Automatic annotation (TrEMBL):
It comes from Anaeramoeba ignava. This is PH domain-containing protein. It holds the Pfam family PH. Residues 17-119 form the PH domain. PANTHER family: TANDEM PH DOMAIN CONTAINING PROTEIN. The lineage of its organism: Eukaryota, Metamonada, Anaeramoebidae, Anaeramoeba.
Length: 121
């Protein structure tokens, strides 16, 4: 499924309850200067990435990731963000999205919630 189709599906999920949402630091490379802050919303097994919360209200997602059993979610052993432990989503094409919240407890909650979302269809 391409991003355009995923965005259309996302826009039809207005009645689906949000499992988790919030601001996260993210990077596609884990490099020191590649981190950006974005707003993430998880509904069912779809994780949407927005520029900020106002773009989320407009359903203007930058990207949507379908979480399924072949997506790996765990902690990075090699990447950190300002000495904070980072978690990662490894996609089926082996590209990695590194993520970090402002607290370790929040990171743990995101990992737990994302892993549970993989089980949903």
């Amino acid at each position: 499924m391409n991003q355009k189709q995923l965005i259309e599906i996302w826009n039809n999920l207005s009645e689906v309850e949000i499992s988790k949402e919030g601001k996260l630091h993210f990077s596609n490379s884990g490099g020191a200067f590649s981190w950006k802050k974005r707003y993430f919303i998880l509904k069912s097994n779809l994780l949407a990435i927005f520029q900020d919360k106002s773009h989320a209200k407009e359903s203007n997602a930058k990207e949507i990731i379908v979480l399924h059993s072949s997506i790996l979610i765990g902690y990075s052993n090699s990447i950190s963000y300002y000495k904070k432990k980072v978690f990662q989503i490894t996609r089926t094409d082996q590209s990695i999205l590194y993520l970090c919240s402002d607290s370790q407890k929040e990171n743990e909650d995101w990992v737990h919630t994302l892993r549970n979302a993989r089980k949903k269809k």
